[in-house]
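Session log. Operator J.P. requested a structure for one protein chain; no other inputs attached. Running the standard single-chain path with token output.
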Amino acid sequence: MESITTSSYAVHFNQLAYDAINAHLRATPYSKIFVLVDENTKRDCLGNFKNMVSDSSDYEILEIPSGEVNKTIETCIRLWEELSERNADRKSLLINLGGGVITDLGGFVASTFKRGIAFINVPTTLLAMVDASVGGKTGVDLGALKNQVGVINQPEMVLVISEFLKTLDQRQLKSGFAEMLKHGLIRDSGYWEVLKSNSDFSDIDRLIYTSVKIKNEVVLQDPTEQHLRKILNFGHTLGHAVESYFLENESLETLLHGEAIAIGMILEGYLSKELTGLPEADLEDIKAVFLNRYPKTKFSEADIETILSLLKFDKKNSHGDINFVLLDKIGKPVIDVKIPPKLFRSAFAYYSEA
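Structure written below.
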């Protein structure tokens, strides 16, 4: 499987990934190499990774607790302090071995420590492989508000090794699959049809490759999200608000990112029917696909009120306007759509009555 070249680095797959990092490490005299893990990737992935990488016995391990709740500036401060205590300098390398929390936070830590050290991302979840692998977005949450602090900065390379997916449960795999379904909705109706019929994650290497390729094509045309790259946010404006609401309420079970975005795509599919001409048949198709794969969530009026209040913190907002990505049809997005407030409740009603 050929590597995918972005504007400044390459995404390498499986054995080619190990070949690429070993060649890179032989050619680059890093002063120190650190590997950032959480307790899960330390247990399930670190051993295999080190067995395939040259001179890995010299690497120093940094560990943080798993989970979105730890994607905070406080975690960054602890890691900056630990890097300093271990004499990391500007010629050090940080390898981020984990899911989206590790790659987002680790990339931010590397990008800001001593004004920037090199980093390599090794995503170990399906979500991180198809989403965080391309685009250079790094950052942390501000309380329950997703990705409010960060920078766009590119890694030296990204290594996608599908063997790590064997460490995941079905819920985590489904979470990542939601982002892949999004790629079909915003860019390729044929890919959407292929994904719809895939219920057992068969041929996952080829599907991951297609999703990474789709995202890379978008980012290459708009690296700083001024226009086209905004389409990658379909389902995320309301989806992130839902995710944040469940994250900050200890009495509620936290939703995984893909589960929240699946809800967001149904809600924003409804808005698309109302505002940008998405055919009723396409909306029903979107609703059926996501409700068949992801558990339905109940929302009270109080829940909806609080979720809608979180929209004002969305990163895509400009000049006080909340900007949405909607669909004209499956595979054809429309950016920067303003939503009449009354339609938000109608969208939740559509979801609740489904």
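Operator note: DSSP finds 14 helices and eleven strands in the chain.
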